[in-house]
Amino acid sequence: MKIAVISDIHGNEEALDAVLALLDQQQVDRILCLGDVVGYGPDPVSCLSKVRDRCDVIVAGNHEHAVLDLLDLDYFNPIARQATLWTRTQLDAEHLDFIRSWPLVHHEADFSMVHGSLDNPDLFDYIQTTWDAHLSFQLLQSPVCFIGHSHVPVTFLLSDVIRYNTDDVIELHGGLQGIINVGSVGQPRDGNPQASVVVYEPEQARIERFRVAYDIEKVQQKIRDCGLPEFLADRLAEGR
Fold this sequence. Notes:
Elements: E1 3-6, H1 13-26, E2 30-33, H2 44-54, E3 57-58, H3 62-67, H4 78-90, H5 93-100, E4 105-107, E5 112-114, H6 130-137, E6 144-147, E7 154-158, E8 162-165, E9 169-171, E10 177-181, E11 195-201, E12 206-212, H7 216-226, H8 230-238
Parallel strand pairs: 1-2, 2-3, 5-6, 6-10
Antiparallel strand pairs: 1-11, 4-5, 7-8, 7-10, 9-12, 11-12
């Protein structure tokens, strides 16, 4: 069994297409999505359609809650607010009903998934420190929890203490538990502009991260054509 986990697509259809092509090559059995399918990028509708077609489970991100007016826009910086308001103009009632159906957390025997953190998932807190990770590890009943939100791929591992690393391959043996930030498909922020995705093999207790190149310039032009902030185009090439 191969399970792919994607997150933070942010309306970037070109990045999503590149990742899906890789996952077809990898012959994954399932695709899971950690939310923020919309927001920032120029193609929220097509990204929603492709996620609907390809993903078994989708949990909601903060940008979905913002689009649904379940999250105060004061939570966002001015650029994110502008992008959210524009995204709302692109979505119809069917799109909103689809997004509204997504839970905040999903659990299975082999994994859990949430956009931000297992503790208070509706607050969309970031897991960026070992203390942040500790709060979610206290609630984790499965070997691994997949998260997104920060757009920065990092792994927290719990044995006798909590450690973190940025390795591309993680093996969870001997009762080791992991919180895996899968990074971002559509707007990486770790200095690497390539889209990020992980593939999980539960039977082998193995997780591998892949980076995928895509046509950044095409997306940048779409962002400009939509009248979205120039910053959202510029940052794609920098991975910031």
